[in-house]
Design brief:
Length: 157
Amino acid sequence: MFLWFRHFAFTMKTPIVAEAHCDAPCGVYDPASARIAAEAVQSMTKKMLAMSCPDTSDSAAMAAYMNTMSRYALVKEEEAQKCKDELLVLWTDFFKPQHLESIPDLHDTFWHAAKLCSACKVEVSAGHAQELMDACEAIHQMFWSAKGRDVPWIRAS
C-alpha cells in the first residue's frame, strides 16, 4: 500500500483547476426544506405543550410521559438545527451582494431566523416557534422574489 501511494504521489501532474459561476448546480436552492423543518419544530412544540404530566406516583404513566416528551424534544431540536443549516446555506451560498440592493433587510432577517432556530432548540415556546415560521415565510418571499418568481407560501400542516 505504501509503495502504491508513494508511486501515485510522485507521478501526479499539476492539479486541474475548475471554476463555476455558483456554489452548486443551478436550481438546487429552495427554502422549502427550511419551512418543513420549521413546521416540525412548531408541531413538536405544540405537542409538548399539550401534554399533561401524570401523577408522579404512577411509574408506568411517568415512564410513558418521559419517553414521549423526550422523543418530542429530540425531534424538535434536530429539526431546529436542520432549519438553521438550510437557512444558513441560503444566506451564505444563494444570496449575493447584489441582492442587498433589492432586499435591504436580508442580513437582519436571516440573522434573526438563525437566532430563532437556536431559541427553539433550547426552549419550548409556541411564540418562538411561530416567529420561526414567520421568518421562514419572509425568507421564502425574499428567495422567490430574487429569482423573479411568485411562488405561494404553502404549509404542509
